[in-house]
Specification:
The chain is an alpha+beta fold and 320 residues long. The chain has one domain: Glutamine Phosphoribosylpyrophosphate, subunit 1, domain 1 (4-Layer Sandwich). It is 31% helix and 26% strand. It is built from eight helices and 14 strands. A hairpin with a 4-residue loop joins strand 12 and strand 13. Helix 1 runs antiparallel to helix 2, helix 2 (43-56) packs antiparallel against helix 3 and helix 7 (229-238) crosses helix 8 (243-258). The longest helix is centred in the first third of the chain and has 23 residues, at 16-38. The radius of gyration is 18 Å and the shape is globular. The structure holds asparagine. Residues 10, 61, 77, 165-167, 185, 187-188, 197-199, 218-219, 221, 224 line the site of asparagine. It holds the Pfam family Asparaginase_2. One of its GO terms (molecular function) is beta-aspartyl-peptidase activity. Substrate binds at residues 195-198, 218-221. The record marks 166-167 as: Cleavage.
Amino acid sequence: MLPVLVVHGGAGTIQKELAEMYSEGVRVAVRAGFAILQEGGSAMDAVVEAVTLLENNPVYNAGCGSVLNEHGNVEMDALVMDGRTLANGAVSAVRRIANAAQLARLVMEKTRHVCLTGEGASKFARAMGVPEVPEESLITDRYRKRWEENLAPGANPVESQTGPKGTVGAVAVDSEGNVACATSTGGIQNKMEGRVGDSACVGSGGYADNRVGAVSPTGDGEAIMTVTLSRLILFHMEQGKSAQEASDEALAYMWEKAQGLGGVVVVDPRGGWAARFNDTQMVWAAAQGQQLHYGLYRGEDFIQPLQDPDSASTQDHHQH
Ligand SMILES: NC(=O)C[C@H](N)C(=O)O
């Protein structure tokens, strides 16, 4: 049933105290993006709106709330892709802007390139009138502290590159059957300056093609890139697998070949969808028809009516 929107706020191990905040944020974002689809808006508008809200929410590792690189700076990656035309745009290692996915969309719409990086991406943002924000406005106390802990004698900065991976992403099918994806992230804690992650690389950190579907992943970027996870999932769907089967097969392959953990949200053009992960947790939410689905641990699929956010949720172990 069309339209559909599915979002994620990252995979990994989410501290118990923060779980409700993580879950609430993806539900708010999915409602806002889905409202656009219900009014006849495009899949592209819906995914960018959902991701923008998640970037602005300091809970997630994207926009405000991004993790810090080895020098204590925020460098963000993002991409968008439109399944109608295969048009896509990305930015990598971009600094001092609030909404990297919107800048990725401008790369798609206003340049002949698919990815701009670092200082070039910042110059392009300025030329497009995107306001520069102070780096401090993107940094939360939580990540500032984590970064400082890594400077302590005896700390192992490489070890702390693992941990919660709160990248954000969204996939949608609009009422005309067009699919789109958007992904945005601060990357991984203590990454080397200039490190480009999957979230800036089309085919890895996202893909959308009206003939097959759309994917947005989260997780170990190097492993995601090694298996080109998003395109791999769509390849399995082209071979006749459902969104769920294709996701599980590709995630298992990523583990086998690259010891990669992560998760994905996926849609197909008929309105089938999946939120799957091989890490301990992934925070996700989906909207379709009158229902909002959401979950955090494996096997969870809580359902609420979209109309009434306060009504009691029911748990249903049907897996998507
Ligand atoms: N948080 C994440 O999902 C990390 C992201 N995939 C990256 O490697 O940059």
